[in-house]
Write a structure and sequence with these properties.
alpha/beta; globular; disordered N terminus; Amidase signature (AS) enzymes
Length: about 475
């Protein structure tokens, strides 16, 4: 009897070590009583401990505290908690009471008085917070290496992880949490998703509360969701979306759905015209995007080239004009009083804001409205736009030697989305011939998030790729 019991326990431990943390796997384990949330939390901390210092985390919830939260779920009805027992993490510019917020700058570190509204929603829905993740300092960068210590790419340590939500993406890709929150101003919820083979759902600005975070551009910052699958991201999205009286930048009706679905067949996907389609000399990325185009056709879609120039022009405003003033305003006096504590590349970017006037900023917003009109005209021709999430990927050494230009290349297909108030979804698309992941991003008008998730789910299933940096394929369990 004792031998049989030990064998059962040994089998359970073996299964636990190989367990995927995607929602279906955990839901099945909980429903069949194979595992409890306490078991999963213990396994999460074991994995974190075994990885050693990987610079994914800036701080962890004490394991005893996370276990207590998991134990408390034992008396709750899982059917009433849509995120029951799911471990998650948040980027270190999102406030959580009891955990220091540094935004990637230790000198800025402080303990907030209030937990961010979106985090509270997730906790109330049964999710279990594990800790806070490393990021590019003050969310200024798409490379993921603008902090004192930074994680590396989940597939090859010589390559950048993508930023600024680097730790949040790597935590999901490497199986440390089921999902995570980042922040997205110019691509920080999409670029690291693509570079680590996971999903990055960037919501329409103003439908998920940003109250309780350190802002880059408060007027269009948003909280993206990293997950292993599109449907996992949708489950978190459904909990997170909704009004918040403490966020003055919320949309009047954040629960409004602009488009319920994209047709299963006979749909049209826009792609950038050839003159504006750039891969920065990366033939493997170009080949992977061609593969994604063919996959759309296999799914029953038509592909139409559209004029991508208004999107590019809008994106160029993010770091090359007076809109930088928002970043300077967010940091306030700290920027001047702690200049020596700010990453030199980050400081140099924000410094440029001082060269513009209020009149320059007004004129820039007038021009943005014109570009928005032109971009929306192009979007009306298609059901959704598909672009490479990133046109290439760089080694860490390459970015260190040319940080500004290469960061701009990373943002070519992402900078414009929030400025134009678009919904966006980054989805894994292929593995390049060099073994690195490649992702695409679907974009559509405001509050078409649900339609993009439906399309992205079909695309992800058809691509048949493993989940994150694991060997588990989508739908394998």
């Amino acid at each position: 009897m004792k031998y049989a019991l030990n064998k059962v326990l040994m089998n359970a431990m073996t299964n636990l070590h190989g367990l995927s943390l995607d929602f279906d796997a955990l839901d099945n384990a909980y429903r069949t009583s194979t595992l409890t949330p306490v078991d999963v939390v213990r396994e999460v901390y074991r994995r974190i401990h075994d990885r050693g210092e990987d610079f994914v985390w800036t701080c962890l919830v004490p394991e005893t505290q996370a276990l207590a939260a998991a134990q408390a779920l034992a008396t709750r009805d899982p059917a009433q908690m849509p995120l029951y027992g799911l471990p998650f993490a948040v980027k270190d510019n999102i406030h959580v009471v009891g955990l220091k917020t540094t935004a990637g700058c230790p000198a800025y570190g402080h303990y907030p008085a209030k937990t961010a509204a979106v985090v509270k929603k997730l906790l109330d829905a049964g999710a279990i917070l594990i800790g806070k993740n490393t990021m590019d300092q003050f969310a200024t960068g798409l490379v993921g290496i603008r902090s004192e210590g930074y994680p590396v790419n989940s597939f090859d340590g010589e390559y950048i992880p993508g930023g600024s939500s680097s730790g949040s993406a790597v935590a999901v890709a490497t199986g440390l949490v089921s999902f995570s929150l980042g922040s997205d101003t110019g691509g920080s919820g999409r670029i690291p998703a693509a570079l680590n083979n996971i999903v990055g759902l960037k919501p329409t600005p103003g439908i998920i509360s940003t109250a309780g975070m350190v802002y880059a551009n408060r007027s269009f910052d948003c909280v993206p969701i990293f997950a292993l699958t599109c449907l996992d991201a949708k489950q978190v999205f459904d909990v997170a979306v909704g009004p918040d009286i403490d966020d003055p930048f919320m949309r009047a009706n954040p629960n409004y759905v602009a488009k319920s679905e994209i047709p299963v067949s006979g749909f049209t996907i826009g792609i950038p015209d050839k003159d504006n389609r750039k891969f920065f000399g990366d033939l493997l990325a170009e080949k992977s995007f061609d593969h994604a185009i063919n996959l759309i056709k296999d799914l029953g879609g038509d592909v139409l080239e559209i004029d991508f120039s208004p999107f590019v022009a809008a994106g160029s405003m993010l770091f090359s004009g007076p809109i930088l003033a928002e970043r300077l305003a967010s940091l306030g006096d700290f920027f001047e009083s702690h200049r020596e504590d700010i990453h030199p590349v980050v400081g140099g970017i924000i410094d440029k804001a001082k060269s513009y006037s209020a009149v320059d900023l007004v004129k820039e917003y007038y021009r943005l409205r014109q570009l928005m009109s032109a971009a929306y005209t192009e979007l009306q021709k298609v059901d959704a736009l598909m672009v490479p999430t990133a046109g290439t990927i760089y080694k860490i050494k390459e970015v260190e030697s040319n940080p500004i230009a290469l960061n701009a290349n990373m943002g070519y297909y992402s900078y414009f989305a929030n400025l134009l108030q678009l919904s966006a979804l980054a989805v894994p698309a292929a593995f390049r011939d060099d073994g690195l992941p490649f992702g695409i991003c679907f974009l559509a008008g405001p509050q078409e998030d649900s339609a993009l998730i439906t399309l992205g789910n079909r695309f992800q299933k058809a691509s048949r790729l493993p989940l994150g940096a694991t060997r588990i394929n989508y739908g394998a369990h």
